[in-house]
Amino acid sequence: MSIYRDWGLEPIINVSGSVTRLGGAPMPKAVLDAFCAAAQDAVPLDELQGAASRVIAEATGAEAGIVTSGAAAGLMLGTAAILTGYNLGRMEKLPHTEEFPHEFVVAREHRNGYDHAVRAAGARFVEVGFQEIVAGAGVRRAEAWEYEAAFGPKTAGVLHVYDVNAAPPLAELVKVAHARGLPVLVDAAGELPPRSNLKAILATGADLVAFSGGKAIRGPQATGILCGRRDFIGSALLQMLDMDDHFELWEPPATLIDKSKLAGIPRHGIGRALKVSKEQIAALLTALKLFTSGAYDRELADMGRWLQQIANALAKAPARCNLMPSDGQSYPILEITLTGKKSAFDVCRSLRRGKPSVQVGHLKLGPGTLVINPLHLNDERTAALIRRLQDELSA
Ligand SMILES: *Cc1c(COP(=O)(O)O)cnc(C)c1O
C-alpha cells in the first residue's frame, strides 16, 4: 500500500531513471536508516559539514567538500564562493555584483537550463565559441584561445559543463584559466558512473566540481556534493550555513573555515535558502560509501534480466528492441523503437494516462524510440510494465 494514496495519488512506474521530475533515485535501506538515525541526536551543522568534508575529500581527492541541497545548489554556492571569497561585504551584496569582477566565461554550447543557478548567484555570462558541427556550418567547436581572448578585468571565473568529449577538453581549459589566475567551476551533476569520475574530474586541476547526490549515488533527492579548493569550499559553506551566533563563541571547523581571516560573522548568505539538514548529510555520506564501494554493481545483473524479459515479451509487438548491456557500472538500457502506426509521443502519452501510469525515458521520442531505464524496476513492476507496453503497442 503506497503512502501516496493517503493524499489521493497513485504511484507510477518510473522507467526513465533518476530524473528529478519523478522524484529521483530509490534510496537503499542503509541510506534511509542513516537518515532516521541522524534524526535521533542534535549536532552542530558546521561540525557535521567538517566531517562530511573529510569523507568527500577521501572519495574525490579534493582538498575539501560539503554536502549541498543538489548539484544546482552546488553550482550556485560555488559561484558565490568564487565571486566573494572571504569578503563579507561582497557576500552581503550577492546577487548584486556590479562593483567587483562577476563575469563567467562559458562556451555557448555549454549553456543549459541549470546554469540559471550560476546566474542567480550574481554571475553574468560571457559566451565564447561556436558548435559549427551541430550548426551544419563548419567543422570546429569552442577553442581554448577563445576563452583567453574573453578574459578581462571583470572576469571572475569559468563555467564548464563536464563531458568526456568536451571541446576544448577540461584539462586544457584549466591550463588557460589558471595562467590568468582564474578558477574553473565544473557542472558534473550527472557524470557518475563511472566512479572514476569522482576523482578524474578534479584531477584535471578544476577548482570546484558539483555532483548530484540524488542520481547515481542514490542519496536523498535534494542532496549534492560541492568539492574542490579549501578556500572556496569554506566560503561556500559560510554562505549556506545559518549564521545566528556570536563571533566570540563561534568555532567553525578549522579544516574548512579559517576564522582568523574573517573580520566577523557574515549575515545569512545567499545560500541560506539552500540549507541542508543533518539527516540529509548523514544519508548522503552513507550513500556515497555504498556507491564508491561498488555496492550497486550487484544489481546490474537483475536489471539486465528485467530488460530482457521486456524485450522477449515484445517479440510479436510492432517494435524493435535493442538491449544495451551494462559496462559493469552503468545501467543496462532497453530501447524500444516503434515500427507500427502510432507515434512515440502518442504511445508515451497513453502510457502516462493509463493504469498504472508509466513514464519512459523520452530522450529519443523524436526518432520514435522509447528508452527504458531499469533503476526503479523489480519483478512486480516489470510484470506490470510488460502488460502496459503490450496493451499500448498493440492497441
Ligand atoms: C541533474 C543535473 C543538474 C542538477 O542536479 P541536482 O542535483 O538535481 O540539483 C545540473 N546539471 C546537470 C548537467 C544535470 O544533469
Task: Quickly list its features.
single chain, 395 residues, alpha/beta, Aspartate Aminotransferase, domain 1, Aspartate Aminotransferase, domain 2, seven-stranded mixed β-sheet, three-stranded antiparallel β-sheet, 14 helices, 36% helix, binds pyridoxal-5'-phosphate
Short description:
This protein has 395 residues and is an alpha/beta fold. It is 36% helix and 15% strand. The chain folds into two domains: 3-21 and 297-394, Aspartate Aminotransferase, domain 1; 42-293, Aspartate Aminotransferase, domain 2.
Tally of individual helices: 14
Q: Which ligands appear in the coordinates?
A: pyridoxal-5'-phosphate
Detail the poorly predicted runs.
none
- Structural class, by secondary structure, is alpha/beta
Q: What CATH first level of the largest domain would be assigned?
A: Alpha Beta
The best one-word shape is globular
Radius of gyration: 23 Å
Biggest sheet character: 7 strands, mixed
Write the CATH fold name of the largest domain. Answer: Aspartate Aminotransferase, domain 2
How many structural domains in the coordinates? 2
> What proportion of the residues is helical, as a percent range?
25-40%
Into which percentage range does the β-strand content fall? 5-15%
What is the CATH homology-level superfamily of the largest domain?
Type I PLP-dependent aspartate aminotransferase-like (Major domain)
**Helix-strand sequence:** EHHEHHEHEHHEHEHEEHHHEEHEEH
Give the CATH architecture of the largest domain: 3-Layer(aba) Sandwich
Q: Gap between N and C termini, in Å?
A: 30 Å
Order the strands across the largest sheet as they lie in space.
2-8-7-6-5-3-4
Total beta strands:
12
Mean of residue pLDDT values: 97
